[in-house]
Design brief:
There is one protein chain. This protein has 288 residues and is α/β, with parallel strands linked by helices. It has a domain of 141 residues: Ribonuclease H-like superfamily/Ribonuclease H (Nucleotidyltransferase, domain 5, 2-Layer Sandwich), CATH 3.30.420. The protein has 8 helices and 8 strands, in the order ααααββββαβαβααββ.
């Protein structure tokens, strides 16, 4: 571990131990031709990615005591392209499910979409306007299990219909968790998704809203995906879509979830303004 002053987003020794095997295996498969081990510790590269995820800062605004933006970019994009970020995410997801006494892969998922504004640097060709929510930007689709763990992610232009997101999510679910036989969706999804699910062996149920209810009312099981969306927004890099390529937006979700699941497996939580203050220092006390 570096001797610099730690940031709250840094991996603890326990959380790094969960991630390190995948990173070490990747490093072993990609040796330098000259035998050079690199100037930056892999743990610090991951810490920089998580710092940016949590704070939402631009690449050039990464603190000077973390690896330089060029190095962090290289690993972020390389791990995005070769699926290392997804591998780490899947390893932790399976561990969380097993600890909860469940099989590695679920039989039921919940689908939902969320439209977020896009930053000015995002190419217009990958964005659109959600006519219903009046949001110009991108649409993030999630498929989560009953624990709220992400099984699949898709990112489309916000102008895409929920049917497009739903069918794309079901295709991802069929690949990532072929054990899934049931999916719950809200009324934004239509018969197209139901019929597509049937071709994949997934029974898609459109959960009808109780017409007597007013305002927001959590629905059984479906509330899990709402909770996951709310948790992801704690990572400021996901509040707005800053990524030039949708694949980077997907990767940001995997890193945010990796952070959340690593904390869950080690019994730690991130500090926030809700965390009670330490009387001795007037600062938020670290949650156990």
């Amino acid at each position: 571990m570096s001797d610099r002053k730690p940031y709250k987003s840094d991996l603890s020794d326990e959380r790094w131990a969960l991630v390190e095997p995948v990173i070490a295996a990747w490093k072993a498969r990609h040796p330098s031709v000259s035998g050079h081990q690199g100037n930056y510790a892999m743990r610090e590269i991951v810490n920089a990615i998580l710092y940016q995820s949590r704070t939402g800062c631009q690449w050039d605004y990464l603190p000077h005591d973390l690896p330089p933006p060029g190095a962090v970019k290289y690993y972020f994009y390389t791990w995005r392209n070769d699926g290392t970020d997804r591998t780490i995410h899947e390893l932790l997801r399976c561990s969380v499910r097993e600890r909860a006494g469940r099989l590695e892969d679920p039989s039921l998922v919940v689908l939902d979409t969320q439209s977020v504004h896009a930053a000015v640097n995002v190419p217009a060709a990958t964005t659109g306007r959600d006519a219903a929510k009046k949001v110009p930007g991108r649409k993030r689709g999630l498929a989560v299990d009953v624990l709220g763990l992400v099984i699949a992610v898709v990112v489309l232009a916000a102008s895409a219909h929920d049917n497009d997101a739903g069918t794309a999510l079901l295709d991802e679910v069929a690949v990532r968790a072929p054990s899934v036989t049931k999916a719950l969706v809200d009324q934004g999804f239509k018969r197209t998704v139901v019929e597509h699910g049937r071709t994949l062996g997934v029974d898609v149920e459109i959960v009808e809203r109780n017409p007597r209810q007013t305002g927001f009312a959590p629905q059984p099981i479906r509330w899990r995906v709402e909770q996951t969306n709310g948790t992801l927004i704690l990572h400021r890099r996901l509040v707005r879509d800053y990524e030039s390529h949708p694949a980077s937006s997907v990767s940001r979700v995997h890193w945010a979830e990796t952070d959340r699941m690593a904390r869950r497996l080690t019994g730690t939580t991130a500090t926030s303004w809700r965390t009670p203050a330490d009387p001795a220092h007037g600062e938020p006390a670290h949650a156990a």
